[in-house]
Amino acid sequence: MSTALVTGGSAGLGRALTTALAGRGWQVVVDGRDAARLHEAAQEMGAHVRPVAGDVRDPRHRDRLVREVDDLGGRLDLLVNNASTLGPTPLRPLATLAAEELDDIWLTNVAAPLALTRALLPALRATGGIVINVSSDAAVEHYETWGGYAASKAALDHLTVTLGVENPWLGAYAVDPGDMRTAMQQAAFPGEDIADRPLPQTVVPQLLELLRRRPPSGRYRASELTADRQGRTA
Predict the structure, then answer these.
(1) How many structural domains compose the chain?
(2) What residue numbers bound the domain in which 44 lies?
(3) What is the pLDDT of residues 66-85, one digit of tens each?
């Protein structure tokens, strides 16, 4: 049985992907900071899902996630670093962000994913596994008030691709899922109607296509990862 670890899995894209993987028979360790919401989501996602409440910035929580993988036999086929933060909202100009606010963005979006990946590299090596780091178009574009978040995602992209170069056996992907109808998107645009954004579930087939296709390590837009009815990738 294939095994995945998905951070930030109680809502949004993390929840949608976890649900899809569990429905395909994967064992999935999933985390989130809100314990009640995480456990409620896990009950809906099925028996193959193991919820572990905690903050991915906390080294003790990351150690627990590694132990959960060990408890499942030490096998890990897929790590999805999805947990993320925009930083303080409403978003504001980069020059107004305090050092501690930038530190929090960096710890959540860059340092924690790297630390968790590093801790799980031995398990991933055993399976020739895959790491997906959820990125953003803000990593390559320049939007007013998005500076802290954008810089962290650009750094995450760079770390992802470097991990792939340093570990040729690893499928290392920074994936920009595009705009989605999520709580994070709503927080970025307070008071706006975001009903025109696609639901996170619509991105899941593209991520599953990435797993199936396993292209060279690198940065991808989810919209690039489509397949026709015969399963050929466009």
Answers:
(1) 1
(2) 3-224
(3) 999 999 999 999 999 999 99
